[in-house]
Amino acid sequence: MQKEDFITLAHKYVQNKCSLSEKEAVEIFFLKQIEKEQNITVLSLNEEKRNTILQKIKTEINKPKKKIRSLYFKIIQIAAIAIIVLAIPLLITRSTSKSLITQSAAKGEIKTLFLPDGSQLILNSNSSITYSNDFLDNRKLTLKGEAYFKVVRNPKSPFTVETTQLITRVLGTSFTIKAYENYPNSISVLSGQVKVNSIKNPIQNIFLTKNQQLLFQKSQVPQLLNDSREDFLAWTKNIVVLKNTSLGETAEILRNKFNVTILFDNPKLEQLRISGKFKDENISTILKSIAEVKQLEIDFQTPNKIFIREKPKK
């Protein structure tokens, strides 16, 4: 908007001769100018506040003639002061107007996302991340479930991921975190270095580098393992990798991946452990392979409801 056009509109505005669109243009102009200069967000102005501002502007316009440039900036100043003073209860500073954003992948779904800073992540089934709308200034998020992160490097703003069991901090690297509820959390590093702290022991710093994995077993000291990049990313390629995994955790993996209900006839069966790798296999094939190794029976009561029980002894 040119200064001359603005002054013309301002005069029409105070004389109540603006069209609806012109009135909105003047008010939007004021609001955007204030937001830019004062670093605040104006939520709304009621009719009483508008009238007060109108009188302030009218008083200034009706003073003896001044140069267009001086009048232009004086009107801006008067309007800014009026809105700030009158609308304080309706103003929220950027530091306090934070809101949370949650993105999720449903059971049976794997979703690729990009964060505001350009970092990429892949969410595994039945997983979610939550972060603030000021993420560019505060690169922190909370993870539930499992995700692969490829973090854009920014030495001025470390990238932090928090789960129920661990806090991971990086500058720029790639890694995966598994943090499903009621099961051990783990973090696996594909490139770069990460710093990990246990929620229960935040003072202890643990540093991980490429091909290292940290496993958080309940009530145990975190276990450092070495593994391959292929296994860390297997789930992103539709591969199920089981390495001495309990049947309880295996069932949780399959529940999330195939969106099914899996029940055990005897809770003790959940403690059995299994190893194996299944690429592009359906749930029936995976469960039948496990049943054969562990002498179990798999009962598909419906396509989405499965019972696992011990095979009767002959």
Task: Give descriptors for this structure.
30% helix; alpha+beta; 314 residues; 13-stranded mixed β-sheet
Molecular structure report:
The chain has 314 residues and is an alpha+beta fold. The protein has helices spanning 3-14, 20-38, 47-61, 68-86, 229-232, 247-258, 283-294, and strands at residues 40-42, 91-93, 100-105, 111-114, 120-123, 127-132, 140-150, 159-162, 166-170, 174-179, 185-191, 194-198, 206-208, 212-216, 223-226, 239-246, 261-264, 273-279, 296-302, 305-310. The strands form four sheets. Strands 3, 4, 5, 6, 7, 8, 9, 10, 11, 12, 13, 14 and 15 form a 13-stranded mixed β-sheet that branches. Strands 17-20-19 form a three-stranded mixed β-sheet, with helices on one face. A hairpin with a 7-residue loop joins strand 12 (194-198) and strand 13. The longest helix has 19 residues, at 20-38.
